[in-house]
């Protein structure tokens, strides 16, 4: 019997055409807003994507009245509050987020403060927003966040070394623009780590307690696209189509985990980000197979199924228990990750990513209380979390 499920994906997605960012007029006109506020980070600001966007804004009768380009790798509360204040002063009527997950999450969180006032911390949790938010157009420039289609925003509280989560159906962007052209200048390392984040979204969404036939379909399609396109997307040239496919896969994985959430791998990764500053995609990449292995005893059937359906393994060996097939999937993911790590010249271990032994206790504490564990197929005790970190610590 199927358990209860629901499916809700309100974000209009347009994509597939390089240069789309400059041809959005017909998509933007129906908003009938004039004053636009844009959120970016310093790297994206340097790429002059606002200039690329300008013809679209002009055609729709819009003008940029405020630009906030100070978003760091993991956005934090003061940044969000500052963005909201600047946008409020400028009378912004609509938001654009051009960047990776941190930029899009900053725009979502700033939208909460802009429309509800006060301190962002007061709005932590799920489904507590009471007023409509401003329309938000999300333009992802990495290939992993999925935030362009999710109702989730994650913001760091640096005083407390915690990642705060905001979940509300109204946080889902109104429009997601998947312009493949913006991924062409993305450094190889970022393509690799953000796509591995998307793969983690897909796999965790499939394995988590809240999965449904609908989230499964998006998760499998995303995992399959990432398997086929990640290595070609890291080539020195001729990567355009592969990167476009990763961009689509990232949005698909976003739709999947927006419904069934993420699990132990993300709990481990959020802690690595909050405590040790490890970039989110790299943290997931390093912890992915540890997390899957810890779920082997209770979710072997799901790990085997997602591996088979997304063709990480070709077929189940005859007369083999499902746990052996699931182990084959994990072994294949280890091989796949090794190729990605070597091709993109990434660290193989937590130590290589800058984590030190004396951070382990704090890492375990923060991972143990992470909200992602709620949806994981089993409860993972702190001593096991410590062991997982130690297994990846490296020499
Ligand atoms: Fe993620």
Q: How would you summarize this macromolecular structure in one to three sentences?
A:
The protein is of the alpha/beta class and 395 residues long. It has helices at 25-28, 42-46, 49-59, 77-90, 101-116, 188-207, 213-233, 240-260, 264-276, 280-294, 296-309, 322-344, 360-368, 382-393, and strands at residues 12-15, 35-39, 63-68, 94-99, 125-126, 136-140, 152-157, 162-167, 175-178. It contains 14 helices and nine strands.
Please give a structural write-up.
This protein has about 400 residues and is of the alpha/beta class. The chain folds into 2 domains: about 10-180, Rossmann fold; about 185-395, Dehydroquinate synthase-like - alpha domain (Dehydroquinate synthase-like, alpha domain, Up-down Bundle). Helices cover about 50% and strands about 10% of the residues. The chain has a 6-stranded parallel sheet with strand order 1-9-6-4-2-3, sandwiched between helices. A 3-stranded mixed sheet has the order 5-8-7. Helix 6 (about 190-205) packs antiparallel against helix 12 (about 320-345), helix 9 (about 265-275) crosses helix 13 (about 360-370) and helix 10 (about 280-295) packs across helix 14 (about 380-395). The longest helix has 23 residues, at about 320-345. The protein starts with 11 loop residues before the first strand and ends with a helix. The mean pLDDT is about 95. Bound molecules: fe (ii) ion (FE2). The site of fe (ii) ion (FE2) has 5 residues, from helix 6 and helix 10.
What's the helix and strand layout?
Elements: E1 12-15, H1 25-28, E2 35-39, H2 42-46, H3 49-59, E3 63-68, H4 77-90, E4 94-99, H5 101-116, E5 125-126, E6 136-140, E7 152-157, E8 162-167, E9 175-178, H6 188-207, H7 213-233, H8 240-260, H9 264-276, H10 280-294, H11 296-309, H12 322-344, H13 360-368, H14 382-393
Parallel strand pairs: 1-9, 2-3, 2-4, 4-6, 5-8, 6-9
Antiparallel strand pairs: 7-8
Helix pairs in contact: 4-5, 6-7, 6-8, 6-10, 6-12, 7-8, 9-10, 9-13, 10-12, 10-14, 11-12, 13-14
Bound molecules: fe (ii) ion (FE2).
């Amino acid at each position: 019997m199927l358990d209860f499920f629901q499916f809700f994906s309100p974000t209009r997605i347009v994509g597939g055409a390089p240069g789309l960012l400059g041809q959005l007029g017909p998509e933007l006109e129906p908003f009938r807003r004039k004053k636009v506020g844009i959120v970016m980070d310093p790297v994206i600001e340097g790429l002059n994507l606002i200039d690329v966007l300008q013809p679209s804004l002009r055609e729709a009768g819009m003008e940029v009245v405020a630009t906030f380009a100070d978003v760091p790798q993991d956005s934090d509360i003061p940044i969000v509050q500052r963005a909201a204040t600047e946008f409020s002063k400028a009378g912004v009527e609509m938001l654009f987020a051009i960047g990776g997950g941190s930029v899009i999450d900053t725009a979502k969180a700033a939208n909460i403060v802009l429309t509800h006032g006060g301190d962002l911390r007061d709005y932590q949790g799920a489904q507590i927003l009471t007023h409509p938010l401003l329309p938000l157009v999300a333009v992802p420039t990495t290939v992993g966040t999925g935030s362009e289609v999710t109702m989730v925003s994650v913001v760091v509280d640096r005083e407390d070394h915690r990642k705060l989560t905001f979940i509300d159906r109204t946080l889902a962007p109104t429009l997601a623009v998947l312009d493949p052209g913006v991924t062409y200048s993305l450094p190889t390392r970022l393509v690799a780590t953000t796509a591995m984040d998307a793969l983690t979204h897909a796999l965790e969404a499939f394995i988590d307690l809240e999965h449904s036939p609908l989230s499964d379909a998006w998760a499998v399609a995303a995992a399959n696209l990432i398997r086929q396109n990640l290595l070609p997307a890291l080539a020195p040239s001729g990567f355009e189509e592969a990167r476009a496919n990763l961009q689509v896969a990232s949005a698909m994985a976003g739709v999947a985990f927006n419904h069934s959430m993420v699990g132990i791998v993300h709990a481990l990764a959020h802690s690595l980000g909050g405590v040790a500053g490890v970039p989110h995609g790299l943290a997931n990449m390093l912890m992915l197979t540890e997390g899957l292995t810890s779920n082997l005893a209770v979710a072997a059937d799901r790990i085997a199924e997602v591996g088979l359906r997304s063709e990480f393994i070709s077929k189940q060996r005859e007369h083999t228990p499902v746990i052996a097939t699931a182990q084959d999937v994990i072994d294949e993911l280890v091989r796949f990750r090794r190729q990605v790590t070597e091709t993109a010249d990434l660290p193989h271990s937590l130590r290589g990513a800058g984590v030190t032994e004396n951070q382990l206790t704090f890492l375990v504490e923060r991972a143990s209380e992470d909200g992602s564990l709620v949806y994981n197929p089993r409860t993972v005790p702190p001593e096991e979390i410590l062991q997982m970190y130690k297994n990846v610590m490296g020499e």
